[in-house]
Specification:
about 45% helix; seven-stranded parallel beta sheet; single chain; Rossmann fold; alpha/beta; about 260 residues
């Protein structure tokens, strides 16, 4: 342990998933305390128990949260603030996708993706800043996607929602700077990562063929590991990134360089 985020109090959404859980483990290993929030309450309860067993009680707390519901955000953040003694880092990680091109996608699916992926960042930031003002320096880390920078023919809702997260992150950064707050806001943009989100394509083609098919699209020649994303989050959550705000980290194995 080097304590890169010692003393940081981190609130993570979508924490029961592959990326969220990797972030939580990495942050606690480097000295942070984490509040794990997810609509899958059982999942974050299990993760918190695992972390507390390994690192000691009081390192992780679990809260139920539907990120599309403002009242649930208000409750979860208030409880997390009490549990951790403050909030200094917000990680807006919750996200979903729905398939279908512009003619096939239903309006209900469009609205759902926008609500989970974009409304959550708005609501989380709006209500977390109240607590983060009291725990500066702070960092807001919004999980976008390389799909927020590069379009595809068959994912209009995901493309549009992740592009919105990208630009919203910049607007939040400028707001905090204008307010004189020592709170940064940045977005991260992963490509294909080895998490359950790839399971549908694995089921369609088989694990080996699916992962080889995805890897061929990435110049570096492999899909990403959750630790690749967790390491970027560590940097953005730590004071090492005190001069970085309104920026984006592309974790895409070189896709955007083509």
């Amino acid at each position: 342990m080097t304590g890169r985020v010692a003393g940081k109090k981190v609130f993570i959404t979508g924490a029961a998933g592959g990326l969220g859980s990797a972030m939580a483990r990495a942050l606690v290993a480097e000295g942070a305390v984490v509040s794990l929030a997810d609509i899958n309450h059982g999942g974050v309860q299990d993760l918190a128990a695992e972390i507390n067993l390994g690192f000691g009680e009081g390192n992780a707390f679990a809260f139920p949260l539907d990120v599309t519901k403002e009242d649930q955000w208000i409750y979860a953040l208030e409880e997390a603030d009490v549990a951790m003694g403050g909030i200094s880092v917000l990680i807006n990680n919750a996200g979903i996708s729905r398939g279908g091109d512009i003619e096939q996608l239903t309006l209900d699916d469009w609205k759902l993706v926008m609500s989970v992926n974009v409304d959550s960042v708005f609501l989380g930031t709006k209500h977390a800043l109240r607590y983060m003002r009291q725990n500066q320096p702070g960092s807001i880390i919004n999980v976008s996607s390389i799909a927020g920078l590069i379009a595809a023919h068959n994912s209009p809702a995901y493309n549009a929602s992740k592009a919105a997260v990208w630009l919203l992150s910049k607007g939040i950064a400028l707001h905090c700077a204008k307010q004189g707050l020592d709170i940064r806001s940045n977005s991260i943009h992963p490509t294909f990562i080895d998490t359950p989100i790839l399971d549908p394509i694995r089921q369609q083609f088989g694990k080996a063929e699916a992962e080889a098919k995805l890897a061929r699209q990435i110049p570096i020649g492999r899909i990403g590991d959750p630790s690749d994303i967790a390491n970027a989050v560590l940097y953005l959550a730590s004071d090492e990134s005190r001069f970085m705000t309104g920026a984006e980290l592309k974790l895409d194995g070189g896709i955007s360089a083509m």
